[in-house]
Amino acid sequence: MTIGVFSLDALKQLPFSNKLISQLITLELFIIWLHLVRFYIGSYLDGNFSYFIKSITNQFGIGTWVAGCSVLAILFLAELPSWHIIIWVIALLAFAIWLFYLKLVFANGALLLYKKKKICNGVILLSAVSTQSIVLLINSLSHKIPIFINQILIIFGYFFYLIGIVMISRFFLSIKFKRLILGWSNTNSIIHGALSITGLASTLTYSINDKIIIYTWLSATCLFVLVEGISLIKVIYQIRIAGWKGGIFVYKVSQWSRIFTYCMYYTFTFSILNYHLLETSATIAISQYGQYVVLGFLLVEIILFLYNELIIRARQSGDNSL
Asked: Is Lipid metabolism one of the keywords UniProt gives this record (predicted)?
C-alpha cells in the first residue's frame, strides 16, 4: 500500500520517473497482492485465519486490506487501464472487505465506547482510511458518482476519525508522559495520515466545502508536527539506550504505516496546491521537495527490510546446518 500511494503522485514528481517505471511497480505490487491473497486463502483453508483477526487491533488492521486493494486498483486504472478484469476483481474485493470491515468497526466501536476494551494507537483510525480509499476508488472507476454519495462516505470518514481520536486521546491522557513516549507506536502516524486521505478524497471529488478542506490540511499539518515530534523524542530515547544502530536502524513492519502517512500528506498537499485551494510558501515547498523526503524514507525502509530478510535467512541456514 505504501509503495502504491508513493507511485500515484510522489513518484511522478521525480525527474527520473517515467511510464515504464510506474507500470513495473504496478505489476510488482500485483504479484505481491496475489501472494498475499494466496497466503490468506491458504490460512483460511487450514483453519488458521482466525489468528489474523483475533484481537481488536488486528480487526481494525483489516482497514489496510481495504486501502491496499483500493490503491492497487487505482494504480491499474492509471498505469494499465486496459486490464479491465483485474481492475474490477481487485475493486470488488476491496468493496466486499470494506463491508465486512464496517461490521467489525461498529461492533468494536461499541466495546471501546463502553470501555469494555481499549486500544492505544492509531490503528483504530484505519476505519477512516479505508472508507476514504473506497471514495477514491469509486471515483477513479467512474466520474459520474453522485455528489451526495461522495459526501455521505466522506462525512462517515470524518465521523470515524473524530470517534477514533476521542478514544485514542482518552487513553493518552490516562498515562504518564514517559510511558506515552516509550510506548509510542509507529501506527500513531495514522493520526495525521487518516486526516490527509480524508482531505484528499474531499479535494479530488469536489464534494466538500473548500474551507473545510483547508482546515483539514491545517489540522493534518499541526498533527503531523505533533505526532512526528513525539516520535523524534522516542528516537532520542532509543539512541541513548541502544545506540544508533539499535535505536534507529531496526526493521519493524509498523514503520511502513509511517511512510504511508508521509506519502499521503505529500499527495494531499500537492492536490490542494494544484486545485489552487491553498497557495502558501509551505504548500509550495512541500510540493516541490516533499517527494525527495518520502523517497529517502522509502529507500531506507526497503534497505532495512532486505537486510532483515538476509539475517533471517542466514539464521535459518545456520539452524538447518546443525
From this structure: no
